Amino acid sequence: MFPDSVYQKLEGELSRFGRKELQEASHRITQAYRLDENSSELFKDPVVQAAYLAVRMPATFACLSTVMASLSKDHKTFLDLGAGPATGYGVLKILGFSFQKAVFHEQCGSLFKRGYGLWSDKGLDYTQTLHTTPIMPSTSLPDSDLVLMGFFLGELSPSLRTSFLQKAWSACQRTLVIVEPGTPDRFRLLKQDREQLIQQGGHVLAPCPHEGRCPMADSDWCHFSVKVDRTSLHRSIKQVTHPYELEKYSYLVMSKEPVNHRNTARLVRTPFKKTGHLVLDLCTQAGLGRRIVSKKDKTCYKKARKYVWGDLIEEKNI
Q1: pTM assigned to the model
Q2: Is 38's pLDDT higher than 70?
Q3: Radius of gyration of the chain (CA)
Q4: Which fold has domain 4-255?
């Protein structure tokens, strides 16, 4: 849930601009995403930054929150690559993480500082560092327990993506989190990242319940969805009427330590409720599979009714 206190600060930020200005800026952002354009110049515009905070940051916050909620809170150092308006920092703060050192890379420093101000009443302290130079193969990255690349890696050129992923993995001491839009193209890139990192000794923490070859067919893609409530201001700027949106995302969490998946399965589709039974589409250690949970099996059926798309399930319960 996007915090009410942050919404209140955000409304103050948005009051500096006219509603028409914000609507036009929101449209420019949407067009840039649809055309997969480099948005670095676009986000230097203050009104575009404000519109992004209003219509995109809540969705990004929801995706990152869902992915990182299960991470251990004993990570002591944090590296955020493509930090945007400090959304990852905000998520981890709300989740209760506390870091001895945090390093942020965001080319648009003004966007980062504007977003950071929503999460903190103070500026960066002595434990935090912001780098605004463009990401290059020569960019030096500090060793960090937790490395985040949220909606960033897919924006790099293919050659830079591969080399920079290698660099980020070298800097990662414990956990690497990659989150991308839930599109077929971005998922295909994540599959390549997964294979690259496994070959380099990485272990899959999520979403896969195994480290074998991804069983998804080329015509399909692994993605998940999170519900994002829209405030009246959000709806006005985006010029929509529906009270919420479903944000689709794909992700990969890799660990430097071996992972015990303990015969678990990931729910990769919304459960289908049929007459007298539920249909669960799962990714398991044996590959993709379908389970039928009969209403006659009262214990399993009761549990299965509560499952939602993306849940990690113990196979003994199905």
Answers
A1: 0.94
A2: no
A3: 20
A4: Rossmann fold (3.40.50)
